[in-house]
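Researcher: Re-running this chain for the archive, since the previous output was lost when a drive failed. Same request as before.
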Amino acid sequence: MILRHFASAGLLSTVGVVTGCSGIQSALDPAGAEADAIAKLFWVLVAVGTIIWLGVSGILLYGVRSGRRPITEAAASSLILWGGVFTAATLVVLLGFALWLMPSLRPFAGEAGTSLRIEITGRQYWWRVVYHVPGYPALISANEVRLPVGERVELTLHSDDVIHSFWIPALGGKMDMIPGRENRLSLLATKPGTFRGPCAEFCGTSHALMAFSAVAMESKDFHAWLASRVKPSPGATAGAAGLFLRHGCGSCHTVAGTEAAGTLGPDLSHLGSRLTLGAGILPNTAENIARFITEPDKIKPGVEMPAFGMLPPDDIRAIAAWLKGLE
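Model: Regenerated structure tokens:
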């Protein structure tokens, strides 16, 4: 019975480990050059560790089943000597392998001649994203990062309040975002897909609710997307634009093509085309936008946005539908 329980626990653990090796937030299912190097290092360490564990287990079983016969002093000294030599040699080899991988773990974007720079600022509890691309004006977005496949991208990372940490596990390692300091990271996506990036440094009440979508796109699709963001959304001046301004939303948010030019909150210019709402925590629907307008503090505790539940329900629904229509 006990052995059956151990077998069941072992099977469940194995299933958990295997399922954790893939998905939109897995460092072991790489879609970027840096993440691929991290995965290689991980699997090499796992393989070497498994071999050492099997060897030690074999020696232990041999000692248990050998009739407890004493070994000679010479044999004991030889075992200690060669065990030490094996340990030192293994550590040297693993260190050498890690050092060999290091340039690909943290490549410097400036040496790669990249022309695309994305400036990302962490705030409690959302991400400000600005694309700097030659031939385009600075394009501002929020809570979503898009990258071209096959082109190295330089990320400049800042924080406006506390320490955050930027991380897209499927594309590369993480980097802290420290107030008053600019840190740099570069990523090279190797296959298209949509991935999840969490904040990897505790930053307050809604730390666990601060994430973003990372979308790796084919190069032509990425540049077409950039070109579509140069102009305001076609519906920016229609519908409930007047309600949005009348209720003071433009004091904190920007919507290109309107008089709304606030910078305290996320830029909402093309909100309708983003994959998620509230920094990766809700599907982007008109209903959820209305919920966020009404009770942001319940959805994301500690958020700076005040609740606007006092507005007429028809106005809330109209503003939400208008924002969802900003493609």
